[in-house]
Amino acid sequence: MVGDDLDRSLGLYPTMMISIGAMIGSGIFVLPALGYKKAGPAVIAAYVLAALVVLPAALSKAEMATAMPESGGTYLYIDRALGPLFGTIAGIGAWFSLVFKSSFALVGLGAYLLLFAPLAQGAVVPVALALGALVVVLNVSGTKLSGQIQAIIVTLVVISLGVYTVNSGFALDTARFAPFSTDGRIGVVTAAAFVFVSYAGVTKVASVAEEVKDPGRNLPRAILGSMAIMTVLYVAVVSAVVGLSDPDTLKTGGPGGTASLTPMADGAGALLGGFGVLFISVVAVVALTSMANAGVLSSSRFPLAMSRDNLLPPGLSRIDARFRTPRNAVLLTGAVLLLLIAFVPVIELAKLASAFQILVFSVINAALVAFREADIPSYTPEFEAPGYPYVQVFGFLAGLGLLTQMGTLPILGAAGIIAGSGLIYAVYGRHRTDRTGAIDTILHGRRGETDDGLAPTDPE
């Protein structure tokens, strides 16, 4: 129905800025010190390793996005490849993880906000709530408006980080890079598992594919272009942080002797004194707000797509007649976002959600294999991921390898998300859909049976 369609208003540049905006928050402004505590200066290599593990999923999603340029992203691809049970788990889990990540961004900016604003510690949560409410309003008011604001903010942040990195070259202390690896290969792998979430935003732009102009051309370019830009930017910025900051400050400069929550400001203080701290702190607040905006924009499309497929209540697929946005899905996402900020220790729980992100990135590679092997006539991507199937096998196994380095509690958290999502499917969605996935087409073919005719890539 035309009334249920979203407006294709996003060109290549704002689409790429949504992807970069989803990556340019905590991965630069918070996580470098946490990774440094686990691997020392080799945290730089950890960011490169994490990028290599993410790349297969980025290539896989770029292909599937051109075959299915609809809202839903991760949910849509896994659902159509592996069936509605796995789709429900992926959709709810990815939505849950992204909302946590957005909450983490808004709460995490408090550490930077206190460096320059005359606020008491108790004011951080109210400010985060106000910014969260603003993000929700922007997303209800229109994807084009939200995308334009996102593009402006991200552009300014990237330029600011470029200036920071270039200037750091004149003040780096090369002695701080030796020894390069303080905990050997295991330290690098463990650090890579923790900074992996820095790249999670690279494929989230696929969830707004239905609102992208010329998706066959713009989606692969936005996904892979933003991935390349952010890998270079991460390596450059983290190198600057390591070379500028006192090692003890990075390791113990946070609350209660934990890793510093403001590593960028630590380095800026060494480079430009008080002005540098002020400059980077303002940039951090803007960037983390941008990250939250990109998170709400993309995560709200998961309940929209699942509602269209009868896996969640129909009201979540309603499109606002004036703004052409999924109003109810945005409001639900925003309500959970604000509740998390107000009542939950988001920083700790965000670590649990990151384990599910790694799991989803592994499974998305399996989804592409299912589509290719099923040879479904309706699956006609305009972009094909190179190196199939070796790239996908590497991405799947490497992701599982990183997952083992997350620790017991995050893995149990991912298991909890899987169990809860499976329960929602059993109670609500199972009796409302008879859709099959590409994997069933493969199984029918191996048994010499005729497929049931359902098109796994067509939305209900």
Description of the molecule:
The protein is mainly alpha-helical and 460 residues long. It has a single domain (8-446), classed as Amino acid/polyamine transporter I. The protein is 69% helix and 0% strand. Helix 3 (31-39) packs antiparallel against helix 9 (184-195) and helix 6 (84-113) packs across helix 17 (408-429). The N and C termini lie close together (12 Å). 59% of the residues are buried. The model is unreliable at 452-460 (pLDDT under 50).
Distance between the termini: 12 Å
Q: How many discrete domains?
A: 1
By DSSP, the count of extended strands is 0
Percentage of residues in helical conformation: 55-70%
Kindly identify the CATH topology.
Answer: Amino acid/polyamine transporter I
Sketch the major β-sheet.
Answer: none
Number of alpha- plus pi-helical segments: 18
Q: Can you name the CATH architecture?
A: Up-down Bundle
InterPro entries: AA/rel_permease1, APC_superfamily
Pfam families: AA_permease_2
Transmembrane segments: 12-36, 42-60, 81-100, 112-140, 152-172, 184-202, 223-244, 270-297, 328-347, 409-428
Main location: membrane
